[in-house]
Amino acid sequence: MSEASKTAENQGGKPLSKALKVFYGVGDCGFSLMTNVESYYFNFFLTNLAAFSLPMVTLITTIASTVDACLSWIYGAILNSIKPKKWGRYRSWLILLPWLVPFLYAFQFIKIGSTAVSAVIIIVATIVSHVAWNFPYVANVSMIAVAGKTPEDRAQLASTRAAWANLSKVLFSYVGPPLAAFFAAHLSEVNQYGATAFTLGIFMAVLYFAHFKMFEGYEEVETSQTAAKKDTTRTSGGDLLKSLVQNPPLLVLLLADLAKWMFNFVCMGAAIYYFTYVAQNKGLMATYILVANILCVIGSYLSKFVANKLTTRTTTIITFFAMAVVMFVANAAYSNVMLVIILMSVAQFGYGIGYACTPALYADTIIYSEWKTGKNATGWISGLQNVPLKVSIMTRGIIINACLAAANFSTKIDPASATEELKKGICVAFIVVPAIALIIAGVLLLAGFHLTKDKVVQYQNEIAARKAA
């Protein structure tokens, strides 16, 4: 038996099964495949298939994304505050709501009735489908802290989950477009994305059910014996507030996580401008995306080995600084397109490591919070991971557009006539701003995230002693 397994048993936990070590994350792969339909096709559906005007498209997407962002903090708070369901406080949600998502999600891509009626249906479907999938999403991430009783276990789960989630980026190019083309041929062009969303939504629900089965026995469920015991996993509004404001490592991590997500979304959004106006070869973007995503998957998988050697905190900090250095080199050689592709792909390898390590860091703040407040706020803190994600999505366009405006960008400019000023301005968006965000994230974690591996283990032991008393 491994040292981590012995420690888990000593702390009253069940060691991770082989299924969890290998297959935890398949649900996240399904989730990402499903949400990629929205990421890649929602705007196109609204403009080209539903034939809404641009102002109406802007209204639909703005209302939906704003409401989604405003609700991002609430899911974990609800999971932590309500009475646990039949199969546990978090695990139950892996089976309760995912089956509703395909039916709700499909209506995002279906035009019914007049323009006004259709717009309302699409907005409501977008908001409600996101609510329905965010509860199991938060519950799924929360299970890392529930099942992972040691730092090694949490790093293992976070790494495997990240590898599967990032693998979906590679798989979608082979799954999404062919599915859409199939339904366009056999249903209609207008309904192709609704059918694709429904199909991948079913796929997500099935794979979340796989997670549900894998986590059997890892979360305490209410029985006649446990019903009389005080439930430390149920929290009031005051408890939730304390777990946030009395948790400096969590506040620092939220800011660092925002910077990490900014790197991801700004790089993604600005890449097309680099390959159009700087490389002047849009075809190379497909090569970049494929290579970068493959390296991202590899980085996610390898993160657990690095984290076990260096600790999750140290791995994340070193990775963020190393990514920034690589990107500054890429910026200095911005006109050497192949070198930029290589260096930015290496940065995505680092992003895979950082993406995998972050949930484990959140799990450490959950332990610190319970040690300090006496209340287990797993769902609340896990749910807060949604906030940096949603905020970064909202600010992505602002950052990219500001960089383009500063470089005097205009859609009328012929790529072959792009000035050096424009090329450098695009590289600021594609490379420099994300690199600066990574430096800020690294500094924040170095200066403000002081939860070392030894401290976390100490806190866990003290929590276990309290419960045993």
TrEMBL record:
GO terms for cellular component: plasma membrane. Keywords: Membrane, Transmembrane, Transmembrane helix. GO terms for molecular function: symporter activity. The chain crosses the membrane at residues 49-78, 90-110, 116-135, 170-187, 193-210, 250-277, 283-302, 314-334, 426-449. One of its GO terms (biological process) is carbohydrate transport. SUPFAM superfamilies: MFS general substrate transporter. Pfam families: MFS_2. The keyword Cytoplasm does not apply. This is Na+/melibiose symporter and related transporter. It comes from Bilifractor porci.
